[in-house]
Amino acid sequence: MISWFMLGLLGLAAFRLTRLLVYDDIARFIRAPFHEEKEETSADGTTEFVLYIKGRGVRRFIGELLSCQWCTGVWSSACLYGGYVFWPVVFMPLIIILAVAAISSLLEVLVSFFLSQTEQ
């Protein structure tokens, strides 16, 4: 049975790992073989980046996976939990680092929000 503390730690670590894989620029090289981003201009003149999934079969599956935070979150959670159960010596430091990074990210969002409210 897993403790509530460990469940929280794994949850924060899975959250951070998912954000890292799906959104963060530092992991763009992981997504590059599976995604193509194109800048498109709409009729009203606004530009936006559109994500296209590359390939077929397994390549397309991984591209879809890496474009969906819900999908990646399930696999991130499964990998972190499996690592915690079967190889805790290696995975506990990784889980702790990711969990601390998640807390730091959440605190940064809160501080930025409250600072923007005081400036208005």
Percentage of residues in strands:
5-15%
Multimeric status of the protein: single chain
The number of distinct helices, counting runs of at least 4 residues, comes to: 5
> What is the global morphology?
flat
Q: Which class best fits the helix and strand makeup?
A: mainly alpha
The N- to C-terminal Cα distance equals 48 Å
Key attributes of the depicted protein:
single chain, 120 residues, mainly alpha, two-stranded antiparallel sheet
Description:
The structure is a single chain. The chain has five helices and two strands; from the N terminus they run ααββααα. The chain has a two-stranded antiparallel ribbon with strand order 1-2. The relative contact order is 0.15. The protein is flat, with a radius of gyration of 18 Å. It has 120 residues and is mainly alpha-helical. Helix 1 (4-22) crosses helix 4 (69-86), helix 1 packs across helix 5 (88-118) and helix 4 crosses helix 5 (88-118). It has one domain (4-118). It is 68% helix and 12% strand. Strand 1 (35-41) and strand 2 (47-53) form a beta hairpin. It has helices spanning 4-22, 28-31, 57-66, 69-86, 88-118, and strands at residues 35-41, 47-53. The mean pLDDT is 92.
